[in-house]
Structure formats: C-alpha cells, structure tokens
Amino acid sequence: MNRSIAIAPLLAAAALLPGPSASQAYPARPVKIVAPAQPGGGLDLIGRTVAEQLSRSMAQSFIVENVSGGGGTIASQAVARAAPDGYTLMVGYVGTHGTNPAVRKVPYDAVKDFTAIAMVGGTPNVLVVNASVPVADFKGLLDYVRKNSGKINYASGGMGTLNHLAMEQFRAAAGFDAVVAHYRGIGPAFTDLLGGQTMMMMPGLAAALPHIRAKKMKPIAVTGLKRHPLLPDVPTFEESGFKGFDGVQWYGIVGPAKMPAEITKRLNAEINKALASPALRERLSGEAIEPMPMTPDQFGSFIQADIARWSTLARERNISLED
DSSP letters along 170-197, please? Predict the structure, then answer.
C-alpha cells in the first residue's frame, strides 16, 4: 500500500512530461504517394523520385501508387477523402490543381480539400512548329500566322489541358485565328505534328525535348521568366514582347486537408533539403524540370494563383468542358 502511494506521484509527474510530437513519431508505417497517372511520364517520375528521397531521409517506406483516369480527378477525389494523417499523399500538378478546376466542374475543391505540402519543380511550355513550316524565329512565326490567319491549325493534348490553354493564350495575344485539333493525350498530338497534319503545338519542354534534339520540330519560344538552360538560344515570350507567359507544367506534393502542421512542415523540410542536393537537381534537370522549392504557405498561394490565371483565360476564350 505504501509502495503504491510512493509511486503515484511519480506516475503523475511522468504524465505531465511532453511526449513525442506527431512529427517525431511520423512516419511509423509506410506512406503512400498517389501518382494520378499510369506508370511512366512526368507524374510517375516525380512520385518515384520524391518517394525514394523520403524513404532514405525518413527511414520509412514511401510507396508510389498509380491511379489513372478522369484526368487526375479519380486520384484527387480519393486523396481528398483520405484520413489527414500524413500516410496518404499525392503528386498534385498543374492538371489536378490548375487547369482542370479552371475548365470543368471537378468532384473536389483543389484548394479547400487539400494540404499544400511542397512544390517540387516545373518545366516550361515551348512553342514548336513542324520542321516544314517556313519560319525560323518568333518574328517570322508572327508574320506567318497573321498573313495566314484562319488557315493555321495547331494540336493539343486535349481540351482544357495546359498545352491547349497556353496556345489559346498565345493566339489571343498575337491576334490570329487557327483551327485546333484536340487529341486524347500528348502522344497522338506529337504524332500528327511530326507527320505534318498539324503545324504548331505548345507542349511541356520535357516531352518536346527529344523531338527538338532530333530536329523534327523547331522551338520558337518558351514560357517562364528566363531562358531554359537546355535551350539557351530560344527566347522567352516576354523577351519577344509578350508578357504574362510565365505558366509552367509544375509538380508538387499535396495531402488531404487538415493535415497536422508539424507533419506538413517536416515533409516540406525533407523535400526542400532533397531539392538542394546537386545529384537530385541534375536528375530533374535531365528531364527539363527545374526545382522550385517553396514553403507550404507559398505553395498554397501558388496553387490559388494558377487556378485564377487559367480560370480567367478559360472565361475569356469561352473554354469549358461542361455540357
């Protein structure tokens, strides 16, 4: 009895001591990173690269799960509904958290239903023309499309995709008419551009680079605020007199809304630390992806601004996927 009385104060004191925080205990089991696309391609690459880095730095398994369909809406809806405990994350990108919400009614709120964790990086869009189009630079292309307004066509990887909206932005700014050919994905769009069935396109640089290097298409201008190191001779739109062309094909990591702040901050710190390593930067730059480290708040603001940008353009150009 006396022994119990003596131990009681010790137990009470121990209960008042601070226990391990959520971030210290996390991750206590494997973490899933959903890539909203089939294996292969930029989304899968980002998911697996981040998973590999976090597995190493946090001494726990981070596993990529590919969930395709609906332009990323199926994966986004599933992650938005997941428990906000940090064990279900997703590669959020310009499609799921930028252009899709701008042109269609999606079954999730790209801002309110998610926790913005970390921006990873982005690749600019590049305006390219078929090798047979008789232009060599931006000025030459402007003269050509304006003289042939209404006779021009261009390819897109699908209505409402970034490459479609970016091309519409250019068409509006340059003041020419063109017929758009929508394809079910960027692959078929490239096939017809290379075959000469279409004349122009504005894909992500990462996807276009092999064709540019093979001289099967000519790069005319890139989006973004500075020239890309992989295409140092290709000017930006801004250099060419067209402001506001700073949109990029970006990739980041998000989770369900209301994730613990400590876990969000820890994941952000680990991802940003990885982005600072020369080896990872080199790996990403080989895919034309430039690291874009941000705080969670900065990334959240970036997402809101990107949705606003493309929503405005979609309204102005009457682009909508709604019936």
Answer: HHHHHT--EEEEE-SSHHHHHHHHHHTS
